[in-house]
From TrEMBL:
Residues 8-120 form the HotDog ACOT-type domain. One of its GO terms (biological process) is acyl-CoA metabolic process. It comes from Ligilactobacillus saerimneri. InterPro entries: Cytosol_ACT, HOTDOG_ACOT, HotDog_dom_sf, Thioestr_dom. Coiled coil: none annotated. Belongs to the acyl coenzyme A hydrolase family. The keyword GTP-binding does not apply. Keywords: Hydrolase. One of its GO terms (cellular component) is cytosol. This is Acyl-CoA thioesterase.
Amino acid sequence: MSQSFTCHDTRITSSYRLLASDLNEHNTVYGGHLLSILDGVASLSASRIAPSQMVTAAVDHYDFIHPFTLNDMLTITTYVSGVGTRSLEVFAKLTGERLDTHEHFLGGTAFLTFVLLDQAATLPAVVPQTTEERAICAGYFDRKQKQQAYRKNLPWSALEI
């Protein structure tokens, strides 16, 4: 496939009001709940350029920067930040707004990897345009190499089932 896409072509933004049912015993949003929402939004970015079905292979990195609390607005923005032969990386930025004060904050960032199920399919290139997109995309190959080295060195055979 020779077609290319811009990061903007793959951008998805989704917002949520956080409620009491989203909170843990510390009155902040459950990390697992954030990851569940994040995976769904990021998969939409991946699907923008995927020629066939993809699955989440990894949440490669998630940085919890600032907690989300009751009645905050959570906004997740995702876009494809790197493309391999059969896999792609999606960058996610989680921002918040305190609805009572309208204060904005960065709540977290993440990278997720998705893999094509169709082994014969290929992925188009993705082209960054903004300063943020260029900075994020510039690190893709280093992140991919570190991830591959990490997975190669895991002691899978030593794990007990």
